[in-house]
Design goal:
Elements lengths: L1 H5 L4 H6 L4 H4 L3 H8 L7 H14 L2 E2 H11 L8 H13 L3 E5 L5 E5 L1 H9 L1 H18 L5 H18 L6 H20 L1
Antiparallel strand pairs: 1-3, 2-3
Helix pairs in contact: 5-7, 5-9, 6-7
Length: 189
Amino acid sequence: MHGHRDHGCGHGRHARGEWGGRHFGGGRHGMRGGWRGGRVFDHGDLRLLILQLVAEKPRHGYELIKAIEERLGGSYSPSPGVVYPTLTMLEELGYATVAPTEGGKKLYTVTPEGTAFLDANRSAVEAVFARMREVGAAYGGGPAPQILRAMENLRMALRLRMAQGPLSEEQVRAITAALDGAATRVEQT
């Protein structure tokens, strides 16, 4: 637990305003690289960002991912493997509480301790959001990461299905109809 308290707070880095490529990437390529698994946010940045978003209103993990995507103009989409451990850390630190809702989703809400932590680090919080606005303005407008994910999911599904062996005529017709239908819907959107 103590390790969580000390890990990645980075107040000194925030106070000095060191916003290098390590945090957000050095351009569109850097942002895409971050989305593919590189480090876009410092741990301390992400902790402050997520806690501030939860303080604005209670949110589910997926809602947090979408909120970050939108604020960065679609140039970066944080993975659940980054967001959910951060939420767990905030809960362990006493900065957020979690309550189950319908469908088994967890709703995260800021605690008084979390609000005090944000207030004590207000300049760092403002710096994170100011940088996000800059990045969203500079790198927004590219292919939406959720569309790129969906395209990759389709490629993987087709590859796995084809690897299972020959398809029957009925299966060929069903898959072809699904693909043609998706293409038509995309064209009409």
